[in-house]
TrEMBL record:
Gene3D superfamilies associated with the record: alpha/beta hydrolase (3.40.50.1820), Galactose-binding domain-like (2.60.120.260), P-loop containing nucleotide triphosphate hydrolases (3.40.50.300)
Entry similarity comment: Belongs to the ABC transporter superfamily.
Protein name according to UniProt: ABC transporter ATP-binding protein
GO molecular function: ATP binding; ATP hydrolysis activity; dipeptidyl-peptidase activity
Pfam families linked: ABC_tran, Peptidase_S15, PepX_C
Presence of keyword Transport: yes
Every ABC transporter domain range: 623-850
Transmembrane stretches, start-end: 25-44, 580-603
Amino acid sequence: MRQAATSVAYVWPMRLLPRLNRRRVIAGSVVTLLLVGLVGWAVIPSPATFRTEEQRITVRTGPDDATEVTLDTTLYLPKKSGRKPAILLAHGFGGTKQSVKSDAEDFADLGYAVLTWTAQGFGRSTGEIHVNSPDWEVKDAARLLDWLAARPDIQTDAAGDPRVAAVGGSYGGALALLLAAQDQRVDAIVPMITWNDLSRVFLPESTGQGPAAGVFKKQWAGLFFGSGSATTDLLNAAPQRTPTGDAQCGRFARDICNAYLDIATTGKADEDAIALLRRSSPAPVLDRIKAPTLLIQGQVDTLFPLSEGDANARGIAAAGTPVRVAWFTGGHDGGTGPQSEVDRLRFLTAQWLDHYVKGNGKAPENSFTYSRVSGLNAQGRGLVTAASSLDTYPGVAGTSTAGVALTGGPQDIANPPNGNPAAISSLPIANIASLLGAGVSAEIDGQHADYTSEPLPAKLDVAGAPTVRIRAASPTGEAVLFVKLYDVPAKGAPSIPDGLIAPVRLTGLPTSIADARPVTVTLPAVVHRFEAGSRVRITIASADTAYSSPVDPVVYQVAADGTLTLPNVAGTPIANPDVIWRYVLAALVALIAIGLTVTILIARARGRRIERRVDADLADTPLVVRGLRKTYGDFVAVAKVDFTVQRGQVVGLLGPNGAGKTTSLRVLMGLTRPTQGEILVFGHQLLPGAPVLSRVGALVEGPGFLPHLTGLQNLRLYWAATGRPTEDAHFDEAFEIAGLGTAVNRRVKTYSHGMRQRLAIAQAMLGLPELLVLDEPTDGLDPPQIAEMRKVLRRYATGGRAVLVSSHLLAEVEQTCTDVVVMHRGEVVAAGKVDDIVGDSPTVQLDVSDVDAAEKVLEELEGVRSVAWSGGSGLVVDIDGVPRSEVVAALVRAGIGIDRVTPRRRLEDAFLSLVGGDTKASGERS
């Protein structure tokens, strides 16, 4: 997929994740996931070649420049002669220069000189982790600018001033901001999913009190500290020295280590710790940033939420610096987002760097863009988003607000000792929320209070930070609370949009809720659509797994007052970018439209022809297959197949692998055309696109679902694609058939194979089609589910409908089906009632009182071919036509008791006799 911009185009770098290991599953891999080199490929590309230079560059760093640190670097240089503009490409926390290797290569192909390096304290670089301290990591980056400026192959603006952009995500994004504030030689920056104030990030407080009263974000902090304190190279697991000489601190600088240990122990930060974290934050120095800034922030990010990007944007713009803000449906918890998001951000970054670094084209607008999930990718590869824009950035307050009334009075909630057990709102590991799907949140009974709206009369869009007023009372005078916004759909499980919650620490509280004064809580900014009929809920909880809580048990009184305020943004859909490919695309769309028109006209004409070819005598017969033959060149997949399926029948289609069963089903479903013969469904000749297919439901060659949607969403989208009324779908019956319970509200990517199979069967039964065609329906089901499926199929056929089942499980077919069709080598070798196909048994099972004596009697009985012990008191006897009554009489005369006489022939025996034990596949036919 290609996208151009001005004079060049770029690739969104999604190859930023190093190989996962135990360490990388935490923050190191998270932050590099969205580090965007945002490199691309040209409309008519012939990527330039490049060479690399691996160097260990020693820089003098520290507050007094007295410390030498050696940085492991790679310079990517295009081979084309001349001076090149440069990009300083920073990796995320826990990564190395290898984390951004692919992105650096793409930049170099486009003519940039790209310098990547491993930050001190990581990988093979020396030094300690100071968390982007201006005296250490930021100064290191400035020294690298000096190094670039001294090279004869780097474009400069003046002596010692390279033409350079700083690009990075998360840890690297904060570095880009801090470097631009500290070194005015930086010409443009693209910081992504990063922080504004590190003290507020790890000690958030949602009533505006600041980090001194913040609630410690213990899970994210612990993951980062655990990653950074590792004493191994995260890329190659090579042993590294421990600079501090302290196994507790690992490669962290002592001041950072001590601050973390103190905060993690007490759950609070003193003034020194807050000052240390703020020193590693862009917040105090935003007014010094003069480099044009494209800020990209993730909407699904519990580490660095949209409020952090908002603070950066407002601070930089206040100094008169050009700023463009882009929100997208990904982040530390949400990953890259759908491909449509990747493409959008690719284009925005292409414009920004192309103009401000290469000097091409007009200056991009200082606009704001955001997006919502809007539907399905036309190629069936997941979700797409619809982006909107405003001329100016509105902030998290939005451009308009809507009030939603909440109901519910004061309630008691308990804070558990040491915050355990606690509610779950999110899990701070990259993409883990998407793996678990909707429903990741879980509240603990007795530890939360709910305040819910009436069902919404119409859809309600939210884009920004909602606010609500709450009151609280506590016998200790203090309370730590977690305020959450829930979407409660009419059908399905409640969920917290993007897993984002608002921690609150309240002090000076009365002991009675009647005396409590309301405080305003600002919830995290979200972009979310509440559908009509859904309810909006505010939940106030006493403990959450992601945060620290008071250690002592206590009971709070809480209340939510009146109205929840929800902001929105009056954006307009983003038009195609004003570049050359816009016109190419317009022409392509026109050609496609003409082609579609012609195709539709042909299809309609063909459909009319098909509809006229109706056999009135078979209008009530679900399926008739006549002389079906299908070849692929010289290969015969189906030689000759004839059979009929009547109403009320459950017909099993049997045959060894390669017998032609699936090919026959594909022709039956209109997925391919027969070479010869015909298929009639209710008298209508069946061809691809035949309208009569609307009376057929099918599961052929396994289920196919969109993994990022829930089971319920997949079913609803499938039915919507049919264009038929929702009330005709019979969703309740389908849900009952699927038997997934609340799992129907989870994303399909979390389903087991058996769960996907059950969902696929439910999809096939949507609309209760008159003919149901299932290929291996019990594949992946456990025994109880298989037994239930038997009942479902039998019951389904009793209503005048018919079922055709292809299966290898002969015992299941025997117990489920009324009729069978046996195929072998592309032909039907038998068809009829199951009992008729099985026929009389040449073998019987006997349970006798004396096995040895019975065996001797039977071996002497004329006509008996064989006697075999089957365990216990059982014998299997091949009577070869001898009447069973004669066998029984012989045993009785010998004084042997007989408990049971049963035929031994099964469908399997009949099947094997029909195919002669030959399991040669179709592909082996002579």
